[in-house]
Amino acid sequence: MNLCRGVTDSIERVLGVKRFAKNCFGMEVNMIVQKYKDMLQGKSVIRQLSEFATARGAEIGYENVFDYSLGNPSVPTPQAFTETMIRLLQEKDPMELHGYSQSLGIPAVRDKVAASLNRRFGMQYTGNHIFMTTGAAGAIAHAVRCVSQPGDEILTFAPYFPEYGPYINLTGAKLRVVPADMEHFQVNLEAFEEMLTDKVAAVLINTPNNPSGTAYSTETIRQMTAIMTKKQEQYGHDIFLISDEPYREIVFAGVDAPYPAKFYDNTLSCYSFSKSLSLPGERIGYVAVNPACTDAELISAMCSQISRGTGHNCPPSIIQLAVAEVLELTSDLSVYETNMNILYKELTELGFACVKPGGTFYMFPKALEDDAVAFSEKAKKYDLILVPSDSFGVKGYFRIAYCIDTEKVERSLDAFRRFVRSEY
User: Fold this and answer.
1) Which residue, among 190, 181, 266, 260, has the nearest Cα to 219 in the 3D structure?
2) 302, pLDDT greater than 90
3) Cα separation of 331 and 324, whole Å?
4) Domain ranges of the chain
5) What CATH number is given for 79-324 in this structure?
6) Burial class (CB in 10 A: 0-12, 13-18, 19+), 362
7) Fewest CB within 10 A of the end CB: N or C in the chain?
8) What's the CATH superfamily of 45-71+333-423?
9) Can you tell me the distance from the alpha carbon of 338 to that of 291, in angstroms, rounded to the nearest whole number?
10) Does the N-terminal peptide bond of residue 316 adopt cis geometry, omega within 30 degrees of 0?
């Protein structure tokens, strides 16, 4: 029993929950983990609104529901990608296409990713610095585990993608959120420097940003990384930058959106092809380890060991091979800037305050009342599905995911007008 109690205590410390209970005979019995059971009560607000929109669409026709909830790309995959898939299926050995790839990803694919990044951003990657993943989420899952241990802190900046909470906290590290720069949605540098204590192992950024659409400027990145460099020297340990970049290619005309790894050696760049190639269902991305990073030659190999514990075990071979042929192509992303300009003009004329997005397919206006949840509930009466800002770490705003057909964006304007006139 003492041995059992010792094991129980260890499990409870790791999970942060009770793993065992006593039955009517006083014996300890196994239970499902309460932590994950509790998470069932905290479903994603975005997913709940998307489900509501789908149900409402079944009643009145989905074309009449102005569903701005889910960030699902709305433009077609490039024809070149489709043709590459067809060619691969026709010409390649089925085992090469459908068999397991190496745990770090297909070497030729990793080499091509490295060469593309070097051409585009003036870096010095080799294939050994690239680890292929199941999208940006898979990339972050590996990057976080490479550079932090349970009890470490990881900082991010409000407003932030809500899933960062489970991404970080379920590793045993602790996510801490730097308050937002409400004027520009850049980085609140003063608060950042204060929160960057010796407990911090990494800083997680997302630029261009979900939900604000803001791209961190060169000056923002320079000032932020200067603070990190100073703190590394002060504390005598590495502080890593994890750069979440699924919207890297969706940057609007004239916007300053630098490649963060150019400014800071200890950077792990986490990328996804979901948005650039409109391939979210294919779950393909990578971690790119800055060659100047501490232990740069080891981190990709470490990622393959992390996969053993997360069940990652590399993304599909055929998708790796296909994206490697179209690395510097994108879908026609111009529709997102068109949609942004239509909405930004109309909403600001209706009295909404909004920082104009520099990229992505998101907009983050201030609600017309303090309670963003109440605001979004009222919008439902006009078949406008808008996501309240509370789960993004900011009160009193709402997110619009305008990755829908431009024709539908234009039709939604009348619903916004009726909503504002009737409710406010």
Assistant:
1) 260
2) yes
3) 15
4) 2-39, 45-71+333-423, 79-324
5) 3.40.640.10
6) buried
7) N
8) Aspartate Aminotransferase, domain 1 (3.90.1150.10)
9) 37
10) no
